[in-house]
Design a protein that fits this description.
Helix content is 35%, strand content 20%. The chain has 24 helices and 30 strands. Helix 3 packs parallel to helix 4, helix 7 packs parallel to helix 8 and helix 15 runs parallel beside helix 16.
Length: 713
């Protein structure tokens, strides 16, 4: 990491982060005065570290240590209580235990503080009734006074741009702060310190490092909104353990979008909320993880799945690139690296750029005859005798319109190699083209030459391509996000929903304008035979209808390929007897047209208690839960978003038509998904809809529902 990417303000100069100093959320980022209740003379104690950090890291405001048993703390005069101060303070830190912490919050509220940070633990996070009650008492006092509460169980907040280091993390002493373009906001103290430490070890400056704790009042989303308004921040990293307030994070994402500010989130502790015993395929497949992914995608937030993944891409966001696509060009002095890089690119579905014949000829003209001019480009060991090869090859390839991003792989380069020349040429190339370029160099001496010139270096080609893939995928995601605000959450769905029988479910869908199979509900053999005659098709299906059997095939209640009146009548009798034998409620037997189609799909929707209506689209059939190929999106959604989700299925290429098959009617499937989403979004009495299978026909021929499950509550 280079100095160009890390701001180094004068440590004696106080740099206000925002203009509104009296707003409580902004006051904690740039306070004029801070009081520490429980201030200690020992800088290694929780009550001593904030005093030490505020003095050490350039805080320009007033510090009031509160300690009734000492006259002085770390060279500062103390006061016995907040009431002893002549004027209100902006921010109060609470570093006293148990009930004393509750009393401290009440005192801060009475004293007119704008915000209070409670570093004490042992409250709502314990799930102990007493702790929960004490936390609520703090919250009540804060809200009555118009004071904002951070925590409890907060490690504290730190803004290194203003010196307002209002926390006790030991990491700030072990990895000295440096103001920079990155903000870390976490619901966990440890998971705030860890990325901070990893980033600082890489030489990346961190401006904000905030740990919100229990989020009893101020949520991580609210704080992220305030931080996103900081013009010096170029990347926000989040660690989340719950998303109880999706509205506030959505607001932060909107502010970030206005600034073209990327947000990357690591979600830990995926709970089982909303994953009660699923009565539908949609309930089982559109679970918590997929719904959270859909929520993040809608906001343009990239979800990291591990701490290394969260941190490894950071430098890519801080480069001055203008990526246009994800087609990769690999250039190396090793044929093996070229092969491994090609494998890694294929694993990531990151296509190697197909260079034009003209480009390959121009590259071949500057390489030795035994080198490889096609992508991946192997310049061979000739680099040892001609240090300018990288500098001549890269510009030639960059002119090819297929070349979007570059990997420079240098597995070995020691004595005799002009590594500084390689780094200079690569840096000049990246600055001139503004196309993403990453370096894979396991030798530290080689890597350091590139880092000194602002290049992003990884120890191997697989990590480099993986990070580049995450970054470029996020660029694409941010270009496609929705811009209009929406509401989230509908409260908990019914714990005991009512299942409509098959006939009622199909009727509910038909009333909403969704095409359903032609069918009749028959309660006698004669009615079944009459239905067969009226349908007038070559073959029909008979299905037992019972509210106790939502998945009929599991109970042997489906018979296919019935082509005569006698066969239909006999099937009605068998299914009726089967239902009664199983002790199920008898609703009749459905006689329906047997529909043929190109593909069986599934469309569903359910009401998530946190995020509201969600829609599932994917490959259907009886194996849907065992071989899932589905996408989940938030509702309501439009046709384009539905089409985008269909395009992200593994089945998508097949839907376009293969081996002589016509293309499927994707528009009809998208429209059906939109309508199903609208049903759940507009009708609070609907808990879930499961439409499986949807018989998808050729383009222009539509899609029809042949089976459905509807849960109401």
């Amino acid at each position: 990491m280079t100095d160009e990417l890390v701001m180094r303000p004068d440590p004696q100069k106080r740099t206000p982060t925002v203009s509104s100093a009296r707003d409580p959320l902004h006051a904690v980022l740039d306070p004029g005065s801070v009081a520490i209740i429980g201030a200690s003379s020992d800088p290694d104690k929780v009550g001593g570290r904030p005093v030490d950090y505020l003095r050490r890291y350039g805080f320009g405001g007033v510090i009031h240590p509160v300690n009734p048993r000492r006259d002085e703390v770390q060279g500062l005069r103390t006061v016995p209580s907040l009431a002893a101060l002549d004027e209100p303070v902006d921010v109060v830190l609470v570093a006293v235990p148990g009930a004393a912490a509750v009393e401290a919050v009440e005192a801060a509220a009475k004293a007119g503080a704008l915000a209070t940070i409670v570093m004490t633990a042992g409250f709502g996070e314990t799930r102990n009734p007493e702790g929960i009650a004490q936390q609520q008492r703090m919250l009540t006092a804060a809200r009555a006074a118009g004071m904002r509460l951070f925590g409890p169980n907060s490690q504290g907040l730190a803004n290194f741009g203003t010196g307002a280091v209002l926390g006790f993390s030991t990491m700030f002493a072990e990895q000295p702060p440096q103001d920079g373009p990155v903000a870390v906001i976490s619901q966990s103290g440890a998971m705030c310190s860890v990325p901070y430490g990893l980033l600082r070890r890489r030489g990346i400056g961190v401006r904000h490092a905030h740990a919100t704790g229990n989020d009893a009042d101020v949520t991580v989303g609210e704080l992220a909104t305030a931080v996103a308004a900081d013009p010096q921040v170029r990347l926000i990293l989040l660690y989340l353990e719950n998303l109880a307030d999706p509205e506030s994070l959505a607001a932060a994402a909107r502010v970030a979008r206005e600034r073209d500010l990327p947000i990357v989130a690591l979600m830990g502790g995926r709970s089982a909320a909303g994953q009660r015993a699923a009565k539908s395929h949609t309930g089982a497949l559109a679970g918590e993880r997929r719904v959270i992914d859909a929520y993040f995608a809608e906001l343009g937030i990239r979800r990291a799945m591990s701490m290394p993944e969260l941190v490894d891409t950071t430098e890519l966001y801080l480069q001055d690139w203008r990526p246009q696509g994800r087609r990769l060009v690999v250039v190396s002095n090793s044929g093996a690296v070229c092969v491994l890089a090609a494998d890694a690119a294929e694993d990531r579905s990151m296509p190697l750029a197909a260079l034009s014949a003209e480009t390959e000829e121009r590259v071949a003209a500057v390489l030795p005859g035994f080198a490889t001019s096609a992508n991946p480009i192997d310049v061979t060991a000739a680099l040892l005798t001609d240090s300018g090869l990288f500098g001549r090859v890269l510009p030639l390839v960059a002119e090819d319109p297929a070349a979007d991003a570059f990997l420079l792989g240098i597995p070995v380069a020691g004595k005799g190699y002009d590594v500084p020349r390689f780094a200079i040429d690569a840096a000049e190339f990246a600055a001139r083209t503004r196309k993403p370029l990453v370096v894979a160099a396991p030798q530290e001496s080689v890597a350091e030459e590139f880092r000194r010139r602002g290049m992003t270096v990884y120890p191997d080609e697989s990590t480099a391509i993986g990070s580049l893939d995450h970054y470029l995928a996020h660029v694409e995601l941010r270009r496609s996000v929705r811009t209009e605000p929406r509401s989230y959450g509908t409260g908990p769905a019914s714990d005991d929903p009512v299942t409509l029988d098959q006939a009622a479910a199909l009727a509910r869908l038909a009333d909403a304008g969704i095409p359903v199979v032609r069918h009749h509900l028959c309660r006698s053999r004669d009615e079944a035979v009459a239905a067969f005659t009226e349908l007038g098709t070559g073959a029909v299906v008979a299905k037992g209808c019972s509210i106790d059997a939502p998945h009929k095939s599991e109970h042997g209640l489906v018979e296919l390929g019935l082509t005569t009146p006698d066969a239909v009548g006999a099937a009605h009798e068998r299914l009726t007897a089967r239902i009664r034998h199983l002790g199920l409620a008898f609703g009749g037997v459905i006689i329906a047209e047997q529909v043929r189609a190109l593909h069986e799909m599934v469309v569903g929707a359910r009401r998530d208690p946190t995020f509201g209506p969600v829609v599932l689209i994917g490959q259907g059939g009886k194996y849907v839960e065992y071989l899932p190929d589905v996408q989940v999106v938030l509702a309501p959604l439009g046709r384009e978003r539905a089409r985008q989700a269909i395009g992200e299925l593994r089945l998508a290429r097949v839907l376009g038509g293969v081996r002589g098959e016509p293309a499927a009617d994707v528009d009809a499937l998208a429209d059906l998904a939109v309508r199903v989403g609208e049903m759940v979004a507009t009708d609070p009495g609907l808990v879930a809809i499961d439409v499986n299978p949807v018989m998808l026909r050729a383009a222009g021929e539509g899609a029809v529902v042949v089976d459905a499950l509807v849960l109401t509550g």
